[in-house]
Amino acid sequence: MRTLTVSELTSHIKDRIENDHVLANLWVQGEISNFKAAASGHLYLTLKDRNSCVKVVMFRSRARFLNFLPEDGMSVLIRGYISVYEPSGQYQLYAQGIEPSGTGALYVAFEQLKEKLHQEGLFDDQVKKELPKYPRRIALITSPTGAAIRDMIGILRRRWPSLQIILVPVKVQGNDAPGQIYSAIELVNSFREVDLAIVGRGGGSLEELWAFNTETVARAIFSSRIPIISAVGHETDYTIADLVADLRAPTPSAAAELAVPDGLDTRRYIQNICSRLTRTVVETIREKRQRVENSARSPVMLRPVDSLTSRHHQVVDQLQKQLLNTVSQSISRDRSRLSEQAGRLQALSPLATLARGFSICTSEKGEIIHSSKQAGKGQNVNIYLNDGSLDCEVKNRYPANY
């Protein structure tokens, strides 16, 4: 019996596995766990079911074509081949393609990106820019061939003939489309005199419309200085670009109608405004003329001297009379109030009290004596009468007997 080294054993097993036609190209279904995206771009995960698990690696050259990001717990179908990783002696599934089980990969990618951009606020109404009401110059970012561009140009020319249209041709499907659309939006934003841009294409399958579901195009639309209308596919088609754009049009033709006003309606509106202005001006002139004619027939204009002499003299006389009456009444009221106040003061005057036979007694210091207790026997006091005063000495004190 031959003795093998570990390397020889591992190499033998690897050769046997790689020469098995079943293991060379197969689909494996399971649930993802331990998913890791390495900085190198390679993807590592474990694919498991209820009883078993297998290590899976997907190299960067294949991973970059995935339309979604695998996640733990996701049920997937993996296409690839089985081989042995010799340094660990472990067999692995080398993935060449991954699809969500039961749900299309594109749909999963759409939902993942939609949720991510929603959380970042790219869909918020507050950040959407207002479209110009009367644009002078519009950029069309779309394929230069096909019915969509012809329809848009035809509608724009018919509705707003003075409009300047700038066509920025791009691919609208395929791997190069997102990059070209991104560059076209940047280019249009470098033009200072472009008022509005329409980004879109005609209808197609989800795969054909996929360029407008990419993060590259979404961020280009969000960062645009110029308002952008998204017009992708048919009315039932909804893309990430529609959600980010400042306005979503159900079709390219509808985008052209939303982008500019109807020239005929605008012309009729202007004509109506002009007619109203003309009627207003004519009516104002007629009214002013009537006022001038009425003024010319007034007495002031017919007899200006009379109006400036006798009539004004009469007014002056009347005003003078009113003034004298007002002054006289005011003086009379003030004299009456003064007399009334003087009477009140006279009634409150100490002199009036003395005149009625009363007297005021004060101490030598001039303090008014209110009580007999304030003056002791032998104390000198002053008594003020109506016609003079008396210096007295207290001989005795008697209590009140009245």
Describe this structure in words.
The chain is α/β, with parallel strands linked by helices. Among the domains are: 6-103, Nucleic acid-binding proteins (OB fold (Dihydrolipoamide Acetyltransferase, E2P), Beta Barrel), CATH 2.40.50.140; 134-261, Hypothetical protein af1403, domain 2 (Rossmann fold, 3-Layer(aba) Sandwich); 353-393, no CATH class. Helices cover 43% and strands 21% of the residues. The protein has helices spanning 6-18, 21-24, 60-63, 105-120, 147-159, 177-189, 215-223, 240-244, 252-259, 263-296, 299-302, 304-308, 310-348, 350-355, and strands at residues 26-37, 43-48, 53-58, 75-85, 90-100, 137-142, 164-169, 196-201, 228-232, 247-248, 360-363, 380-384, 389-393. It has a five-stranded mixed barrel with strand order 1-2-3-5-4. The protein is elongated, with a radius of gyration of 54 Å.
CATH homologous superfamily annotation of the domain at 134-261: Hypothetical protein af1403, domain 2
Number of strands: 13
| Sheet with the most strands: spatial strand order | 1-2-3-5-4
Content of β-strand: 15-25%
Let me know the average pLDDT: 86
Largest sheet: 5 strands, mixed, barrel
CATH topology grouping of the domain at 134-261: Rossmann fold
The CATH architecture name of the domain at 134-261 reads: 3-Layer(aba) Sandwich
Total helices: the number is 14
Q: Please give the radius of gyration in angstroms.
A: 54 Å
CATH class of the domain at 134-261: Alpha Beta
